[in-house]
Amino acid sequence: MIKEKLKLAKKEEVAANVYKFTLEGSHIPPRCSPGRFLHVQAGDGRAMLLRRPISISAADDQTCVIIFRASGAGTEAIASVRVGDTIDVFGPLGSGFPLLDDGTALLVGGGVGVPPLHFLAEELVKNGIRVKSVIGFRSAEDVFLADELRQYGEVEVTTEDGTYGTKGYVTDAALMNSEFDTFYACGPKAMLHPLQENIEAPGYVSLEERMGCGIGACFACVCDKKDGGYVKICSDGPVFEKGVVQL
Amino acid sequence: MSRLKTKLPGLDMKNPVMPASGCFAFGAEFADLYDLSVLGAAAVKAATPEPRRGNPVPRVAETDSGMLNAIGLQNPGAKAIREEHLGHCGKAGIPVLANIAGTSIDDYCEAAAVMAAAQEVGALELNISCPNVKEGGIQFGNDPQLAAEVTRAVCEVSAKPVYVKLSPNTGDIAAIATSVEKAGASGLSMINTLIGMRLDTETGRPVLANKTGGLSGPAVKPVAIRMIYEVSQRTDLPIIGMGGISSVEDIIDFLSAGASAVAVGTANFQNPFICPELIGELDEWLEKRQISHVSELTGRSWKSCSVPLS
Lengths: 247, 310
Hints:
The complex is a heterodimer.
Chain A: E1 2-15, E2 18-24, E3 37-40, E4 52-59, E5 63-69, H1 73-79, E6 86-93, E7 104-110, H2 115-126, E8 130-137, H3 146-150, E9 153-159, E10 166-167, H4 170-175, E11 182-186, H5 189-198, E12 203-206, E13 222-224, E14 230-232, H6 233-236, E15 239-241
Parallel strand pairs in A: 7-8, 7-11, 8-9, 9-10, 11-12
Antiparallel strand pairs in A: 1-2, 1-6, 2-5, 3-4, 3-6, 4-5, 12-15, 13-14
Chain B: E1 6-8, E2 11-13, E3 17-19, H1 28-31, E4 42-47, E5 60-63, E6 66-69, H2 78-85, H3 87-92, E7 96-100, H4 105-116, E8 121-127, H5 138-141, H6 144-157, E9 162-165, H7 173-182, E10 187-190, E11 194-196, E12 213-216, H8 221-232, E13 239-241, H9 248-257, E14 261-264, H10 267-270, H11 274-288
Parallel strand pairs in B: 3-14, 4-7, 7-8, 8-9, 9-10, 10-13, 13-14
Antiparallel strand pairs in B: 1-2, 5-6, 6-12, 11-12
Helix pairs in contact in B: 2-4, 4-6, 6-7, 8-9
């Protein structure tokens, strides 16, 4: 875990208000793996104190890619950083997705839940796993990463208004699938809930929540467990085995 | 760094800087990031007699230069804290300031007795100011008589010195301070968070599930400075100052206002390395101005013979 200023090497708007940042630094955070996140400072940190958790969508020794939606003052401030300037990041934090050794995986993502699945698909395919992705968005202008995911396997895209791919919700499309050994899902709780409850195969869900410290010290992002206890999403997760957390 | 050595009742510290209660848990997470032995002390998360689940989420909401929290004193209970969670501070050899909370005088005494018996604990921090729990102690922080009553009861069961953590959500904070001083407190820590609320502009509803929360961060610093300035002139108790500290200049201001030590809270969330960084910067600040000991700064804002700095 490090706190580091990384250089914004490349910036693309990959969908409406969704930005892809390629970050570079002499110390790219080691141990970036699918499902983990960077805690990113917004602006100089004086007006907006809390960092924003943004999942890692790709990483190697020199670069790290994050994709996020500019949807409030904090993420808008991050989105306004210019190429060549630096961004203060802390991480990588959290636990990642456990990687399958063999078999077939179904990846299910909604909106800004899709980026970590891109990193995951890449790593799973390296392990020789067959991957199918089902990703959902509101509308055609919101779709991103569909082409990138296609290099790792079959991709089905849903949009709520039907302007791209299948019309409907990503959960309904995902639940039509049965030929897989493990599922991996990232998105809002409302999306994860039907998957956790209805898929019989083992799987993992990655949760989103407002966070404070990002390391488990402030107890801002707790979530009830099904067995009565609780987890801290930032440090015990954000990835949990199916059936562990109450969604 | 001998110019930083600070000795307060129960707290023999290398320097006057500690993480504030609620922003450091029990140190395990930070021990992964830096050597805890550099800290002056550690104010750990509030202990209640029984485990507490805390409030529903969302529990935090950002505000301009501040944040609201309504965690709700989530903790595993005093006994579990004493037995399972103090090891990191103990191993580092730093004194623990054990925050205790409750809903009744009996609760406070029970938590106090458990925590005061821990070897790692140097002193207790009596939390009569948590704004986020129904009957979470703030009623004691609002009334000089009740504050004195709970302080007296806790001092009786505690073999360790007791610091009372004061609430800014009160009319006359100096009256509370003088009242707990008479009741046997060894020190004060101030200030706890200010009660606030943020609304979702679209829906008009409060953002926090608890509706209200405690405001912390740089936004509250002027309130803390004013209260420490006032209280430090009215009591002889040493004050641990807190409220939005995020730079060495903030620390100097708190000391000048009348604090003898400081606690860093919300700033740990943005920069988990802030405490060690500030300790280094504080030493440099004093060295540059050839101040032989940090205690010379305490109360400069009001002391008639205050040391002019070159």
